[in-house]
Amino acid sequence: QNGKKEKIRYQYRISLDSDEKGIDLTKTVYLRTYGENTKKSGFATLSPAKSGLTAGAKTLLWEDANIQGLTKAKKAAVYTFTKEKFNQPTQVYLTDATLANAKQVTENAPDAGK
User: Fold this and answer.
1) Beta bridge mates, 32
2) pTM score, two decimals?
3) Strand ranges inside 1-114, DSSP E
4) 77 burial level (CB within 10 Å; 0-12, 13-18, 19+)
5) 35: buried, middle or exposed (CB in 10 Å: 19+, 13-18, 0-12)?
6) How far apart are CA 8 and CA 73, in angstroms?
């Protein structure tokens, strides 16, 4: 609903279940987002409704960084994703389904001068 107006690309659906046989619209659908002008990225969700999905995506994470690689633990509500900036290396973050309060769990390329 805001993609064209705000120049946001809803790039692709993220499959969080490796055993998935199709798209189950009774479950929340996660999408990768990308700002054409801002170069921001993140994740959004489409929520299930009585028939299909509710209109409009809900942004969960939207930052001035390259955010991708969303995965979910097989037997727990634990999610991981990666984030990098032009001046910072790729780091892995651990979070829940809301993607709020993500905790950085790696320290790639720490400052060698310290």
Assistant:
1) 12, 43
2) 0.82
3) 8-14, 29-35, 41-46, 58-63, 66-72, 79-85, 88-95, 103-104
4) exposed
5) middle
6) 28
The token pair at 29 is 């659908």
CA-to-CA distance for 94 and 104, rounded, in angstroms? 6
pLDDT tens-place string over residues 18-49: 888 888 888 889 999 999 999 999 999 988 87
Q: What is the distance between the alpha carbons of residues 33 and 12, in angstroms, rounded to a whole number?
A: 8
Q: Which residues contact 58 (CB under 8 A, 6 or more apart)?
A: 44, 45, 46, 47
Q: Given a cut of 60, is residue 96 above it in pLDDT?
A: yes
Rounded CA separation 84/106 (Å): 12
CB 2 within 8 A of CB 8: yes
